[in-house]
Amino acid sequence: QVQLVESGGGLVQAGGSLRLSCAGSGSVFSGTMGWYRQAPGKQRELVASINRSGTTNYADSVKGRFTISRDNAQNTVFLQMNSLKPEDTAVYYCNYQKIFPRVDYWGQGTQVTVFS
User: What is the structure's pLDDT at 27?
Assistant: First the structure.
């Protein structure tokens, strides 16, 4: 059974940094891992993703500020968030896209709150 456990959220002042971690278990994790976020009253959106080869994809709103990385040996994905803004406030969810069968798995979410 695939499980994703996030950690690292919290309260931070604008301009500060946070590092999110997501540890996976129950699978080989050969597919793409990523981070999504959902702010109150808004749809869940992709923040960043990374495949097993290290190819990354970022939302325009976080390019140059956030960095996603992955440790394949530990089935762990990280999100380094710098220069945080109040609009980054959201619940951040770890995501794993299993290749076959094609299934999405989600973590429980971790709250990130940025105050000005």
Answer: 85
Backbone torsion region of residue 10, taken as left when φ is above 0, otherwise alpha when ψ lies between -120 and 50, otherwise beta: left
94 near 22, Cβ under 8 Å?
yes
The radius of gyration of the chain's CA atoms, rounded to the nearest angstrom, is 13
3-state secondary structure the chain: CCEEEEECCEEEECCCCEEEEEEEECCCCCCEEEEEEECCCCCCEEEEEECCCCCEEECCCCCCCEEEEEEHHHCEEEEEECCCCHHHCEEEEEEEEECCCCEEEECCCEEEEEEC
Q: How does pLDDT run across 55-67, given as a tens digit for each residue? A: 999 999 999 999 9
84, 101 contact by CB (below 8 A): no
